[in-house]
Amino acid sequence: MTETLKKRLLDRRPQRVSSAGPAVSGVQSRIVARDPSQSVRRIGLRQPWHGDLYHRTLTLGWGSFIALAAVIYVAANMIFAWLYWLQPDSVANARPGSLLDMFFFSVETFATVGYGVMAPQTLYANVIMTIETLVGIMTVALTTGLLFTRVSRPTAQVLFAQVAVIDTYNGAPALMVRMGNQRRSQIIEATVGLTLLRSETTSEGRFMRRFHDLTLLRPRTPVFALSFTAIHLIDASSPLYGVTAQTLLSSESELLVTVTGLEETMGQTVHARTSYLPDEIRIGAHYSDIFSQDDTGRRSIDYSRFHAVEPTPDRTATGGV
């Protein structure tokens, strides 16, 4: 591989292909986004604000979830406080015309605290109190269920290397992706998948995004305890055979990586995924060694070097073969 192509692939300014054909400069969107700013915009998809609220709530970050719960809690109590305030002297021992007292009485009723200082003293107030108690019980039940689901759902703490590498493996070019298990518990029967996504033009001249599965030398491991490196040989049967750095960039190629397995502590299936764009693939480089052994023979793994790569001297590792 020439140094010119290598520099093009390592360049941090990727190109994308328009439906018209020629490549134009811009930032490539990910199918598997690492953060919300990299996700693909969805245009023309109409969904009501109340559609799939359960799933949307579960996918919120913790900060947004707590803020949403606080807003709903305060808003609900303000609405019921206003309803109590509409009828003067509806709540005993409350200051006349005090919306703040009505709010605190609503909080006591909503949470079924009932300190006994303020109490409804009219039929109207008792009806509102009955409705609020029902709403409070249902809200607490829903919030508890959402919190339990968010905390108890199984997740895989898989650490993916920040870049993928293409280097020689047993004399042949190979694409490699390193991943590690950040938990002390093990993932049983872990299965790794590599897929190449790129833009292609059919013989009819139609633009399409195509998925190509990449065959791995070892697609599964019985025990994923520390680290695992997925290796795909770039031979004549590989979708990467014959590609160059320029075609990877112009075709908006994206490497998708998935990991699925059984978490031994929870006994449930967990999964993780990430993706690599062309400027996140290092040509002619290999991952730094992260394993070491002390004088007592005890082995250790250095995660501070997990993302480090080193150039491979006197080797030609290329995706254009």
Question: Explain this structure to me?
Answer:
- There is one protein chain.
- With 321 residues, the protein is α+β, with helices and mostly antiparallel strands.
- It has two domains: 53-152, Helix Hairpins; 155-311, Immunoglobulin-like (Sandwich), CATH 2.60.40.
- The chain has six helices and 18 strands.
- The strands form six sheets. Strands 5, 6, 7, 11 and 14 form a five-stranded mixed sheet that branches. Strands 8, 9, 10, 12 and 13 form a five-stranded antiparallel sheet that branches. A two-stranded antiparallel ribbon has the order 1-2.
- A hairpin with a 5-residue loop joins β16 and β17 (299-301).
- α3 packs across α4 (99-110) and α3 packs antiparallel against α5.
- The longest helix has 30 residues, at 123-152.
